[in-house]
Queue: 3 jobs
Job 1
Amino acid sequence: MFLLISRPFIISSRIFLLPRLKFLIQRHVSILNSDSTIRACFVLQILGTDTKNVTVQPSLILNSVSGTITANRSKAKLEQSLWEDALLDAQKVIELEPSSHVGYQLKHTALHGARRYREAVEAFQIMLAKLDSARGMQIRKLRDKYVSPSRAEGIIQKLIDVQLQSAPLRLLNTNTGLLCGREAQISAFKTTTEYEQLLLSIMKHADLPMERIADAVVAYFRYAMLSHRWGENEPLLHDIQDSVVYKLKAAGGLVKLQSFCKLARHAGYHWAWVDTCCIDQNNYVELQNSLNSMFSWYRRSALTVVYLSDVPPSSKSGALAKSAWNTRGWTVPEFLAPKVIRFCQQDWTPYLDDHSPNHKESVQIMDELEDATGIYERVLVAFQPGMRDARQKLQWVSTRATTIPEDIAYSLFGIFGIHLPILYGENAQNALGRLLQEIVARSGDITPLDWVGQPSEFNSCLPAHISSYAAPPRALLYLSEDQIQTAVSSLRHTVAVDQALKIYDQLVNMSAPRFANCRLRLPCIVFPVTEVRRRSGPDQEASSTYTVKADGLDDVSITTEENLIQFSRLRPTRRTFLLVRPWDRRLLELPDFADDEENLGDCPPLDDSDESTGGSPGEEEITDSESYSRALRLIVRLGQPFGAFLLAQQRGGEYKRIGSDHDIIARVKDVTSVHSMMDLRTLEIL
């Protein structure tokens, strides 16, 4: 007769009766060696099952029992980290119960322990397939704990896309020495144990935090970048494409490239980037995108290595400051942008024998770099790109040089957080002009107009060369708070409230400077020029010095290469000349809301119940008094010496700035009469 037994019964019974089953089987080996039907009935009796009215399939019962015993033996070996022995038992479980997921689960665990990750993934995939085809609520719950391979791969791919979106297009694989595009980078990742481990982790844990997955992707795709001075015979893209860098003949710039890749690999980075060979210099679109992205690439690099090719081994402090690397324009963003940086000498050993992981944390090296660049140490360590302190940033690069003239402007795009077209061949003046125009237009900051030298053909209010910013911003004497209060008290007797408030309101409502299409609309306080007279001096000198008189101002001395028309009230000229004070909103002493935006979340919400439609007479008097005092403080500041521009009117009614070899410092004749000479205009300057 044939007995029929359900698999759920065997699975549930064997779990609880396994110890008894093993004990009785050992005592009745002779029965197990007899006919298969007798053996099956014997097992059922051990399990406590009535065999009279039950039909059994002998092989099913015996395979299930043997599979259980083997599975438990495999688990025991897994606990002892006996991976190969556990794998053998897992394979036997699969042979005994091919439709069950248990054997593949054990096989996966053993392979994972043996670090045979690819095979472990395959075993896990089969296990999921077995669970998908199984029935029962408990099996379904078990299946829901896992993620399908396709979904796990999709999760990883999305994170890879996000990571590579902000990374260089091409990177050198430090392990293989091959230059890889995006697809090759992704393919390389998928062949690694890191990828297989990540894939398994996601498949096994449906609730695995996305941050952990992202961290694993970021860790693999971290890259090191090189900051260096270009030398002779630098390898370009076509020189290394489809070649193993390490196998190329070590000569010229290739030695530097090979050494850098080895250093990056030794530091634990799979990828490296060098500007000479990782950009297609002949692809205009790629070149433009790369130059505009350069700052952010250095910003996101895990490590930036600065190679000082002219600093010999064992050099003393001071060698960095003297290096030619410190004279180049592009190196400024390359040491400001990164968070982690290391300086290497000629033989690739650490500068000053400093083996710390980040030289931005080295006080000695940062002190030397501060002295060499004029950039404060705190800025070197934690630089933030943006428009703030524009004049100071322009001074940082004013004495530096680039091989291509336009690059001195392009190298600053990232520092100011600006993206503009790269137009090689436009000339340096135009490139610098476009940058400065963007800064003034977007920020309203007029400090980039503070320079001495020759005016630009782009716009006369801008300099022809970056070196015009080499001199520090004009230093003017500012009053102390006590001096301001004394002056305010004095003005209360001479300036009426309505006059003071009118001036203040006019200046508050002055528009910000606007720059577009090479034309500057500049709000100014205007002082008409009444006389220009040349001082005597050698005729052979390139520059001439003039005395300029303007209504309401003391005489001003101007030295310029331009030949100015001499005139006076008695001998007037048809051409209009103006001395102007560019309007600077900082004189209003208003709070800088940009600094406070991040703190707005800490402010308590306004209580509507506290609002009122009007204040008491006493409150209004206090408000008027404060406004009057604020207006008088402004008048006091307007009476102090200021940096002036000399403008000459053109035929179309626009103006041009006259370049000067020195700052033009103007002074109001009578502070008490400032309010009566306020000629406010917005002038269009070419």
Job 2
Amino acid sequence: MTVARSHSLSKLKPLISVSLISQSFKSKPPSPHLPPNPNPQFQTPSKLQPLTFFKPFSSSSSQPLPPLSLSRDGNYDEAPAAPVCPGCGVHMQDSDPKTPGFFLKPSKKDPRSYKLGPHLEPVALESEFNGALKKGFVIEPEELSLVSKLDGLGSESKPEKPVVCARCHSLRHYGRVKDPTVENLLPDFDFYHTVGRKLALASGTRQVVLMVVDAADFDGSFLRKVAKLVSDTIDENAAAWKQGKAGNVPRVVLVVTKIDLLPSSLGPTILEHWVRSRAREGGAEKITSVHLVSAVRDWGLRNLVDDVASLAGPRGNVWAIGAQNAGKSTLINAIGKYGGGKITHLTEAPVPGTTLGIVRVEGVLLGKTKLFDTPGLLNPHQITTRLTREEQSLVNISKELKPRTYRIKDGYSVHIAGLMRLDIEESSVDSVYVTAWASPYLPLHMGKTENASEMVEKHFGRQLQPPIGENRVKELGQWVRKEFHISGNSWDSSAVDIAAAGLGWFAVGLKGEAVLSIWTYDGIDVVLRNSLLPNRSFNFEVSGFTVSKIVSKADKASNKSQRQGEKKKKQIDHQKDSVTC
């Protein structure tokens, strides 16, 4: 009793636990219905069986996961061969850090010792000892729940974070892949074998295809081969159904993401009409519906969820398909808020190829509908596939697009960084209005075409970045030319766009005809299309090198900070000199 009265409640907790252990391990006569235990000293009372509460936690006791053959099938099957990373869908393993899917097992914390200090209260604030403790009563084993409550005093329950692979951890916390060479060991994702054959089944569950396309890079992220495959499957199964045979016709929902990156002056009706026209030209002739959404600002998600739920039914399969970095994982995470309210844990990062395997997400849509996030399909004709991570961060459009317009004439050229150039070769009018739509972090240059070769030699990799560095210019490939004949009937708005996959586009406005040349690296897709954003800027850019206001403000802030640092350093040096004198 003297010991009990001289200690605080928090210091008595270990004593209570020790008393419980000694009480529970006292020898008791064996039951007449059970054979005698050869090791009576390890006999556990039935009241506390099993006594795992007092065993120390350890992560070393579990056996390492067996090695697996590398694949991208993810957890499409009900019972995958190994745990799958909930962030990217790769099979997880804990044996080789140089192999895809490596993860570190989180160490389990003992609630009696882990962060014990912050949960304690000052002695003055503790409640008075209860009567049982003052009288010296010992807590019986049946009352272990009380001890658990005492141990949890002051702690707050937090949702358990999922265990993800080391690659996802690096992307989530540092925005980059720690070792990009590891994922090169994975085989290419075979969409036609993994997903295509499931969509082509004439019977089975209803299939809904979410074709996810980036609004800021529509033609570069629109998958023409997938669109053709789905359209052919719809035609075949629809014909079979009309003949009385089994015919499971997939539904196609075209989802245009990142519409918050487009100027607010573009109306949704005009945008949808433009999207449907481009999709038909790309081979998607059987589109059930079109949705314009922004996962970041929650635009259009409610209508999308309701539409998908009605099309899939209570047991259907929904496949999210799109090019790399089109925004599929971000879209699914946002859908989780509006569907079943389930929090998903798909990894989001402005890095192409974030998802490595198929990830089955259940509970997001109502009923037993399954939603599958698939790896982003590689478009080798996008310029971003040739760029480094640092260069991709400059090209990636993350802010609302702003027009940068030039008024030029024959014999002049406009560069977008060191990646694309437009030349006015011939024109029936004196002025042509050229608007560059690209990332605000990319520098522009306007000058005479006769000096273009000098620009490549002296400024590519320097003032015109990307590419970053002189050596990168040769690594990107050969600089090639494509010719376009265009016409327009107004100077106030752009008539056509000339877009480079993964980069941006030039919008051209004129009242007459012109012959233009586009220069970029060999193998990059360049398309001529109707203008997406016909409005141009009323303030014209000047000749020479120009950067956006965002970059100018950032440079000014950096220079100001640098000047302040230098001024402070001079003051410190002056004070030191004064003290020395």
Job 3
Amino acid sequence: MDSAGGKFSGLKSGLKLYHESDSIYSDHNVVERFVDDSHPYSSATDSGVRSEEDSTEDSQLSTAMLKYMGEILMEDELEDRNCMFQDRVALLAAEKSFYDVLGDPSPPPRPRPPPPPNPPLYSNAAANDRKRRKNQHPDEASKIQKEESEGCNKSKTSGIKKKRNKGEVVDLRALLTQCAQAMAAYNHRAANDILMLIRLHSSPFGDGSQRLAHFFANGLEARLAGTGLQIHTALTTKKTSVGDMIKAYQLYFSACPFKNMSTTYANGVIAKLAEGATSLHIIDFGVLCGFQWPCLIQLLSLRPGGPPKLRITGIDFPQPGFRPAERVEETGRRLANYCNRFNVPFQYKAIAQRWDTIEIEDMEIDKNEMIVVNSINNRMENLLDETVTDKCLKDAVLELIRRMNPDIFIHGILNGNFNTPFFLTRFREALFHFDALFDMLDATVGRENEGRMMFEREMYGRDIMNIIACEGSERIERPDIYKQWQGRNERAGLRQVGLEEEIVMKVRSIVKKEYHKDFAVEVDGGWMLHGWKGRVLYAISCWKPSHLHLL
């Protein structure tokens, strides 16, 4: 996979990471330093510390999630239920319709990009850049079309390149960037011309770069037409069954270790912390279908002296309609059945409401229980921040967690730097991020696989549409890089807890034995980083309330 002019080598301990000094983008998500062979976390597999029995047990636990997904697929009437992964967008659409019916003149503001004659205010640097490029794009578009008709190759940039039958080379990433630049300068004619050229070379059925270009072109086209929210809402609310999405998710889990890495680490930390506990209360922000917990339930059932009483408070966004908590409650019923099978005492409470309305009393915390707050399903990235609201909901949730005074807060995040109100910067960073994701699936899953195509369309495609075509509070994909979360957590009164060396080594071993060689597990400043070919895509760390804030 090309990445802005340079190729990454596969990550292995002891190797230095290739840095893109000539990149046309600012790449904030590449590992800045690499752990060498002398680091204690690097010796997971090569040292032979772990026994064959431990490895077999880890393998059995890592398949518990897949088996749990299979059991859900066997449920009656599953095909009639809609997917729950994008409920917040569906709720946003329902709220908008509700205001339309009531005729409320003052619904929550949802700003749109201004019309072409009145370009938005940017920084001076962005304004100068826009002036410099203002008359550039029509000439570039004409030049590209001329090259296409003559069948010659005059491309001088590096990146993702695809050959046509006539021998011409088309740089899809450069074309996408030129199209975004034209839109930022409100040069709609040039943007349309470049979009037409991108459409000739992109496809949802091609290789990773062609699929990337296809979905980014969809987002650019919707932004150009001003229909981003409508299209994103239509994609979100269409009839996609839970069964189909779980099948696609099974495929993703089998091909990609990111979910397995986070689950293995989080469950290992919880199991170790709860070794002597009689009652364990897990407060799960973003419980979804509860895929994380079958592995932990099995671990707890094997504890000498018997398992503790397990309480899970499952929190997620409500679904539209008259039963907003239905899917969160279904997750509780499934987990209760699973606990019965392994003789683990279990209690569950479902909370399905806007996270900024949750109160600490809703958790029904018992001072005699061990409290674990868990959030590894990247749902916090959907919370609005200070760029669109006076009250940053991300900070508000973190402060709520601190006031719960948990024994541990396990925080897993999607490591993305495309949460900015400035379109062109957001576009470039998103292009980098999704380039790695599409390349990853292209290297691990066949192109004709229907599950892969569904996952790319239903998950990546919808996210890209929202990131590229929506603005203001309509844009709900708002990830931050792990260093930004570090600052947020510390400001909220949380202090970081060091990583568990033994569990990190276990994660390394699983990834090395069972997944593609270009997946990597690294450590930086108390965060365990998950990456593909040098790009950090996910991260996880553990936190506790700062004593200064408890006084």
